[in-house]
Amino acid sequence: MTQTFASLTFPRPTEASLAESFGVVASLLDAGDIAGALSRFDRERRTLDSWSALVHLRFAQDTTSEKAKEDRDYADHLSPKATAHEVSIKKRLLAEPLIDRARSVVGEHVIALWKSDITTFDTRIEQALEEEAKLTSAYTALLASARIEVGGETVNLSGLAPWLEHADRSVRHKAEQARWAFFAENGATLDDLYARLVALRTDMARTLGFETYTPLGYRRMRRVDYGPEDVARFREEVATHVTPLIALLLEQRRTEMGWPDLHYWDENFIDPKGNPKPAGDYDLLIERAENMFDRMSGGLGPFFKTMVEGGYLDLKNRDSKAGGGFCTAFPDVGMPFIFANFNGTHGDISVFTHEMGHAYQNWRSRDLPTIDELWPTMEAAEINSMGLEFLTWPHMDLMVEDGAADRFRRMHLISSLSFLPYGVCVDHFQHEVYARPDMTPEERHDTWRRLEQHYMPWRDYGDLAYPAKGGRWQAQGHIYRNPLYYIDYTLALCCAMQLWLLSRRDEAAAMTAYEGLCARGGAAPFTTLIADAGLVSPFAPGALADVVREAAAELGLSAD
């Protein structure tokens, strides 16, 4: 019987208890008990991660709770101290004469991860790490505080979504005006938060011996098998193969709709009949999702029932919740948790299947021997999530309103292709910011607008003054909270679309490949995982072009 989420409790660590727990690991190493030390080290980190995940989830569930805020601040204060203990142990295990014995137990990939980890921390940056966590939490709380008047209702940013894709063009326009009025009102605060984060991260990097934050950021993301040069080439592949295709698609949409021009508020209105909506309310969607996963091969059906029965879902939008969606996990009990904000749009389905992909991977790999393997690095993890979005296509008749399954599939494909230019723009922006950390707020906004015009030259904000001057990036939480984490989605999408193409030819083979990828978790680096799954690396010449060509053919467009 799986422990229910409501019953979860993990010991609250203290500085003294951390010193004692990791001191036991050190004592076992002193005694030459390497296997015992590694086992205890893994167990201590699982318990610590479980507690931290629960604390931060509770804050996301209610950003107005003083108790949740206090617990989050305490966890953020303790985190660098825990990291200091972990790095100290890893350094011992990576040094002679212990490294060969450690390698024989945890494997070469975990050793590579640890070698990267130990370069990302020093006790001299403990205070900076705590301050970074406070600033990112302030960003989360600020966006969660938004109360926007639209259509006679008061909604938060997540609740604004139905209005942003309303069939009435004037309604979409007014919704965007209301949205960006919030960002304009808080623009100075958002600029200040980001300037402080960039300065803080740059100082940490220099303290650790890096010239800029970028190499430190790659190591914090545990990217051990590719670098910024590979990513830069991939970004240009997107600009070459995808940007012209999306420009053509948008021009066709403008013509079909009879619009004299195409503005920002038109980009997400994909279907002339109106973007398909979910089949019904929350309860119906959960019931239909159980049916959908039961239809699919593998363990998805039983796993989802376990999630529902155990209460490991929080999907309804509430005023006090943080925006967006994510999957977290509690390694001590081997269960993940899905957090989202259903708002009655097609996005509910995409976000749900996306986060379900993360959850299923984590559950499938829960018995891997080390905590370092429970999650892959993020670009590989996003294949599991985006892959499930595509693999559920044959069952969309259950999830969307009657007769809209084909329209939903077309919209999802268009949205996926359209995301690629935006995704690489977010990444390129961050690389430029961290290369020039002394930019003024105005220079950052100018940089975003310049890059936006390169990757999305069609974008016209009309009278939306704030994004028109380059402020669109401030709505992208990853830029604040997870530096350099965004290219992962685009790299993963290139691989997930390969799973989609395989599923069209052989659904069973695609599911077998997907199940295998999930089960391997983080047992290998990104490029090895995808090669073993029979997928082509996004860094390989022509990989993106082939995927885009077939997707364009499905849409009746030319990718050339």
From TrEMBL:
Domain of life where this protein originates: Bacteria
Report the cofactors. Zn(2+)
Name all Peptidase M3A/M3B catalytic domain ranges. Answer: 165-273, 306-539
Q: How is the cofactor bound?
A: Binds 1 zinc ion.
Which Pfam family is one of those matched by this entry? Answer: Peptidase_M3
Q: What keywords would UniProt list here?
A: Hydrolase, Metal-binding, Metalloprotease, Protease, Zinc
* Family according to the record: Belongs to the peptidase M3 family.
Which protein is depicted? M3 family oligoendopeptidase
